[in-house]
């Protein structure tokens, strides 16, 4: 067991309001839940600084996952978000990181958009006076993987206890930590521990996209969850075989450099580091739209031809989650991915017209023949459209309601709903069709013999049902740390992880080599 966790829950609740004595070390307050640790240690703090919240508005993408790595790490950050935050300002407190004063670490983040289009700035408050200071080191951005690494140094004189690291993602350079923002601001709550000397390093791995693949560390760490200098560590990248998209593993990225293109990579530990497993889905290609059937579909992402900065590269999407920047289920959204909500096929509706059918729901784009004021939706019946070259030199296509040149499908500026316009052929009312490669099954599966594994996680206790035969079950955290390695021999498996994590990935490998990845949130939290 991690030596920082060995005093788990031995401190009576009453001492939380008392100052530390010689018999009470900070180690005795460390639990397997970093948020609980922060609360326990934070209660004995004399300082509780108040931070200024900047004004502003949300713009562009958001951080989909973030980890911390480096010599300063006692307990890594494991932050994951599958949808945009409801606000431009987010305080991340339940997912926290425990750090060592006098050391350095890296804040590793993956975004839903290319971060090179934004200004990324880090601010810290190591003296805990409530005033942020700008981090001198700049973020290292890798556009191809939509990721950035922000190096951060903690001074030896840092005040011990709870503080914040502020990450600003702005459309322009901010004048201060509290300046108005057009983008997003994240305050990550961290806890600084007393400085100590070490001969081991912290290694973390993460996937650039957990929907495409999983990254894990196969080598078992020492009791502190770290790896001795000079030791060998093996990491593994696992492609999500259940994805319909054609997925390729591109390599292991360290900083901005690919250090290996092998899925299984062994290296010698010389320093604390973080590796990112880069997975890519096959790139959709611009195509001439064609009709197809449900049995032999051709799937498209449909992108609006607008060229202005706020309106360009928006794709037709259908999503029942209306939170964030959108007010309608059917809308034009950015950035696109290869999930069902962005995938559409064209079904023959007779007389040279088509229905536009969503892959995930089998619903069809539908609306009334009214200009501008009626937001289109998706229904079982759908509306009929004629798709024809717009006549513009950009090569786009017009989507005409029932073939009428005066009623063209368009994206409504600002609210991003789908409406009908009677102007803007080839630009505002033009569309591009990108064909998306989808895997074709090599054989017909016997559904009676096939059961999809399902999992449940509660307070570090994992239950998996729907297994067949013997399976190896490896459980990792968001930073790739091995939380459990089990052999399952029955249809149902139960096991306890080394310590509780809010977000885990269970990689299930059958005797035949079939791999299933389950992404689970601990339902206790």
Description:
This protein is mainly β. The protein folds into four domains: 3-193, Coagulation Factor XIII, Chain A, domain 1 (Distorted Sandwich), CATH 2.70.50; 200-281, Immunoglobulin-like, CATH 2.60.40; 285-435, Trefoil (Acidic Fibroblast Growth Factor, subunit A) (Trefoil), CATH 2.80.10.50; 449-521, Immunoglobulin-like (Sandwich), CATH 2.60.40.3110. 2% of the residues lie in helices and 43% in strands. Strands 1, 3, 5, 7, 8, 11 and 12 form a seven-stranded mixed beta sheet that branches. Strands 4-2-6-10-9 form a five-stranded antiparallel beta sheet, with no helix packed on it. The chain is globular.
Structural class: mainly beta
In CATH, the topology of the largest domain is named Coagulation Factor XIII, Chain A, domain 1
How large, in whole angstroms, is the Cα Rg?
26 Å
Number of domains: 4
How are the secondary structure elements laid out?
Blueprint: H1 34-42, E1 56-58, E2 63-69, E3 73-75, E4 78-80, E5 89-100, E6 104-111, E7 119-124, E8 133-134, E9 140-142, E10 147-153, E11 161-170, E12 181-193, E13 200-201, E14 203-207, E15 213-217, E16 227-228, E17 232-239, E18 247-254, E19 257-260, E20 264-268, E21 273-281, E22 285-286, E23 300-304, E24 315-318, E25 330-333, E26 344-350, E27 353-358, E28 364-366, E29 377-379, E30 385-389, E31 397-401, E32 408-411, E33 418-421, E34 430-435, E35 454-458, E36 461-465, E37 471-477, E38 482-488, E39 493-496, E40 503-510, E41 515-521
Parallel strand pairs: 1-12, 5-12, 14-21
Antiparallel strand pairs: 2-4, 2-6, 3-5, 6-10, 7-8, 7-11, 9-10, 11-12, 13-16, 15-17, 17-20, 18-19, 18-21, 22-34, 23-34, 24-25, 26-27, 28-29, 30-31, 31-34, 32-33, 35-36, 36-39, 37-38, 37-40, 40-41
